[in-house]
Design brief:
Chain lengths: ~475, ~450
């Protein structure tokens, strides 16, 4: 029942928030999202205590005649993703306290609605339910970007929506194809994930290839993987900061999580044949996006491209389908989620305090606010995966995993570390160091809400860099389960 | 059967209202009558399986009853939408025409003889020609009626010729007799029989406005009064599809080799032409006309799948219900927005999110449903069609349907963007009648309910 509450609480919360007004909206949203976080911690301890507890499984029929069930459950992987979601959403809400939004009740209501869909995606154990939540997550973020975004948002958010919807429909076809092949022995078709796995394995190579590409397309667009990334930079830049955080911090992980749970186990033969192509695209995307990031002038756009590079590495690691690769992918999903939210908040703070995000116009902020400089540095170090930060474990495992797939591929993918350091350090230098530019003069102390978010993120960066064990154990456990299905 | 009789009775009553001067109470009588017909329809469920009536002219089996149910529910909603349409002059004529059109529609769900099919088509179409032209002083409305009449009679000609050829081969108008004739001939059928089947197919494609027989639809939809357009895109469509399905799944199912390739081409053309053209429309009414062609293509896909068992029937039943309810919602909003100045362009929707938040929210749900996004009825509708199609050799059509659906999202979302993102020229709030608010809330809830718990509809036949 606990796992059901995880989905119901944000839904009720979002309805409640829709009926509030003015500043109460954000306070209510923050409070309710913290409740959800506490609930997810309770689930975590329950899981630690007894992974097979009845509380962690919910399975009731939805459309009985079609084998569709409302089946959600918590396993190691979904536990991690749920924790990431419930940890980030309060931070995202808190980070908005300095921004004034029109109709705050709708804004925060939509964020909470999105949280419900995200938790649903990560816990769904039924292919159909997974698809429904997957699509459902798209609608709130579309409206968040459309109603509170920057200039040109109409066309940009529309492109984003059509792009992702297009991919999702292909995924639906792939899933229906699998569904049609379930139940050979019993004659009863089923959407349950285990049945879809069995159905996938019974297919021939050609059939699996069809399923592989139709499902991969959806995930590749969501992450995004080169050459399907063209919606991403504009959407990230034009979305309101909180929307960007949701997109990059959590929504992107829907794609990588989907790879692990919904793609690798259903098409093992196709993975063997086509995995190389998909990894090639991912690795090419790393280099491509890194190079573009290096020459970016707008800091927010720079992070957007860095996100493509990071996710390329994650996807290459996962597609190499070995213990280190997948486990590293999971760890990096957590690390990247936390860090990228911090970086986007920094971009927002810069804009609010100086009126610009252009690297040329920024400079010397360190002298104005040393505290901010240190926190920025810590989060950036996490992002370039320095040892003892939360990015390190994942990146190390990922490159290790890709190495097992092919040393040359790993060598090219490893360039991402160097290139990442180049654009990150270069931007830090431009913004914080050097001569004090005009824009930096007015840079005062940070608002307490921003400070709180940055402190928490810095704490997470260091704490899980020094002691990643609890997360790493879960990631390892989850990966082992998935690997038993692949092999 | 009782439903059909009640609606016919109501139609005659409406004509008498002028003579006996009870025009004022006619509207509530008709509303109650439609509800009564629905209830009568409901009581027959599982009760009169396969009892042929009138020398085997009509047979209300459960499939017919289910489609009649969809038509009667839609009719009820439609009468609420059209309440002030009946406040102009010629009230009684309008009532009678609409009611007789519904009689024709009900006949199309239940015919078991080619003559009843033709009668149903004509009883449905002739009132529609008149109704399309019912704004007598409006040139566009006259043009719509005239075009509809010319093109419609042309299609009826095709239908008759097709029926004649099939009769020539099989020697019977009776559907079961034709079916037996096909199965006993073991593939040795005269060529003109196939020609007849194709001509019937063309006529039916015309009635459901599938490309390339769709040219009448946009002009007629745009020119006709908005409420009549709503009637055409819901009840007429549902009835035509019930007939289409009955003919091609039950009667001509065994000779599907002949018509399936033709139908596949029709579907592909409809998908591409309708969606691309709809994307460029400035008028929302015209956009909805083209979108109805695209929805027709989706329903035709379920017929093409020719699914054994009830897969195709369920898919079409659910699709027509979801589409009818969504359309009624959308047309109610179009009607409310364009009431004062007859402006149905997309600009008229600018800023609706501020000018009337409730109406705008209902429009969002309607658009999401027509675009097929979960958790609305439209999503399950598309899902069922895809499920029936995936086992067939026509997988390329699914890919095409997905590609064109993405285009479809473009024009539906254009309306949403206009409502929430564009500035209106005048910020005046949009006034809307209470009955229409009730209708919008009802249809919106219905759309969401079908999207969350589709069980009750799709588990009807299994």
């Amino acid at each position: 029942m606990l796992v059901g509450l995880l989905i119901v609480v944000p839904l009720i919360a979002s309805l409640l928030v829709f009926f509030t007004k003015g500043n109460t909206s954000r306070t209510a949203a923050l409070g309710l999202s913290i409740v959800e976080f506490a609930l997810s911690l309770a689930v975590f301890f329950q899981y630690k205590h007894n992974p097979d507890a009845q509380d962690l499984i919910l399975n009731c029929p939805w459309v009985e005649s079609l084998g569709i069930h409302f089946a959600v459950s918590i396993d190691a992987l979904s536990m991690l993703m749920v924790l990431l979601t419930t940890f980030l959403v309060p931070l995202i809400i808190l980070s908005s306290f300095k921004n004034e939004y029109e109709k705050p009740n709708s804004f925060y209501g939509l964020i909470l609605l999105m949280q419900m869909a995200l938790v649903g995606v990560f816990t769904a154990n039924d292919g159909f339910l997974f698809y429904v939540f997957w699509e459902l997550a798209l609608i709130p973020i579309y409206f968040i970007c459309l109603l509170w975004g920057g200039e040109n948002r109409g066309w940009i958010t529309f492109k984003f929506f059509v792009y992702t919807l297009f991919g999702s429909l292909f995924m639906l076809i792939g899933l229906i194809y699998l569904y049609n092949h379930t139940g050979f022995e019993t004659g009863i078709k089923s959407w349950a994930v285990a049945d879809l796995y069995t159905a996938g394995k019974s297919l021939s190579l050609n059939q699996q290839s069809f399923v592989f590409w139709s499902i991969f397309l959806a995930f590749a667009i969501k992450m995004p993987i080169f050459p399907l990334h063209t919606w991403q930079p504009n959407t990230y830049v034009n979305a309101p900061t909180q929307g960007t955080m949701l997109l990059s911090g959590i929504m992107l992980k829907m794609g990588t999580f989907g790879l692990i749970k919904w793609l690798l186990p259903v098409a093992p033969l196709a993975l063997e044949k086509w995995g190389g192509v998909a990894i090639g695209l991912s690795v090419f995307g790393i280099i491509y996006a890194s190079c573009i990031a290096i020459v970016q002038k707008d800091y927010k756009r720079l992070i957007a491209y860095s996100s493509i590079a990071h996710v390329g590495l994650i996807s290459a690691g996962i597609l190499s389908a070995n213990q280190q690769g997948i486990q590293g992918g999971v760890m990096q999903m957590l690390g990247h989620g936390v860090n990228v939210v911090g970086l986007f908040l920094i971009a927002d703070i810069l804009l609010r305090h100086t009126g610009t995000r252009e690297l040329d116009k920024l400079g010397g902020i360190r002298n104005m606010n040393g505290n901010f400089a240190v926190m920025f540095l810590i989060i950036m170090m996490g992002s370039v995966a320095l040892p003892l930060t939360n990015g390190f474990v994942g990146e190390f495992l990922l490159i290790n995993g890709i190495y097992q797939f092919g040393p040359w591929v790993a060598a090219i993918a490893g360039l991402s570390v160097i290139l990442g350091a180049v654009y990150m350090l270069r931007s830090y230098q431009a913004i914080m160091l050097g001569e004090k530019k005009d824009s930096a003069v007015a840079f005062g102390p940070l608002a307490s809400s921003d400070k709180a978010v940055l402190y928490i993120i810095c704490f997470a960066v260091i704490a899980f860099g020094v002691y990643p064990k609890p997360l790493n154990d879960l990631a390892e456990e989850g990966t082992k389960v998935i690997l038993t299905y692949i092999k | 059967m009782k439903g059909l009789l009640i609606i016919s009775g109501l139609g005659i009553l409406a004509m008498l209202a002028e003579i006996f001067k009870f025009k004022k109470v006619l509207y509530p009588i008709v509303l109650l009558g439609v509800l009564g017909a629905y209830a009568a329809n409901f009581t027959e469920w599982n009760n009169n399986l396969n009892i042929p009536m009138f020398s085997n002219m009509i047979r209300f089996d459960n499939v017919a009853l289910a489609f009649s149910g969809v038509i009667l529910v839609t009719a009820f909603f439609w009468f609420i939408l059209a309440n002030d349409y009946f406040e102009q002059d010629h009230i009684t004529d309008h009532f009678a025409l609409v009611l007789f059109a519904i009689v024709g529609a009900l006949m199309l769900t239940s015919f078991s003889n080619m003559t009843t099919l033709f009668l149903g088509v004509e009883i449905l179409s002739i009132p529609m020609y008149v109704l399309a032209a019912s704004r007598k002083r409006d040139l566009a409305s006259n043009e719509a009626g005239f075009k509809y009449l010319i093109m419609g009679s042309f299609a009826s000609g095709f239908l008759l010729f097709g029926i004649a050829l099939v009769y020539g081969a099989s020697g019977s108008f009776d559907l079961m007799a034709i079916r037996t004739y096909i199965s006993q001939s073991h593939g040795d059928l005269p060529v003109f029989f196939y020609a007849g089947v194709i001509m019937i197919l063309v006529a039916m494609c015309f009635k459901v406005s599938a490309a390339p027989f769709h040219f009448w639809a946009p002009d007629v939809y745009e020119g006709a009064p908005t409420v009549i357009t709503a009637l055409m895109s819901t009840i007429v469509k549902t009835a035509a599809f019930a007939a289409f399905m009955h003919l091609f799944l039950v009667v001509f199912g065994k000779v599907s080799d002949v018509w399936s390739m033709v139908l596949a081409v029709v579907i592909a053309l409809s998908l591409v032409i309708s969606n691309i053209t709809a994307a460029t429309q400035e008028s929302v009414k015209r956009m909805l006309a083209y979108s109805s062609i695209s929805h027709a293509a989706f329903m035709l896909m379920a017929i093409l799948a020719n699914n054994r068992g009830f897969g195709s029937v369920n898919a079409i039943l659910f699709y027509s219900l979801a589409y009818s309810i969504g359309s009624i919602s959308a047309f109610t909003v179009v009607y409310a927005v364009s009431k004062n100045n007859d402006d149905v362009s997309i600009k008229a929707f600018n800023g609706l999110g501020k000018r009337n938040p409730l109406v705008a929210a209902c429009m969002v749900v309607a658009m999401l449903s027509l675009a097929g996004i979960p958790v609305t009825a439209g999503f399950f509708a598309k899902y069922f069609v895809f499920t029936t199609m995936i086992g067939t050799p026509y997988k390329w059509l699914i890919v095409l349907a997905i590609l064109t659906s993405a285009v479809g999202v473009y024009y539906y979302f254009k309306v949403i963007i206009a409502m929430y993102f564009k500035q209106a020229d005048n910020e005046e709030p949009v006034q809307i009648e209470t009955s229409h608010i009730v209708l919008l809330v009802l249809t919106t809830l219905f759309t969401l309910a079908l999207g969350i718990v589709p069980n009750y509809v799709i588990e009807i036949f299994s």
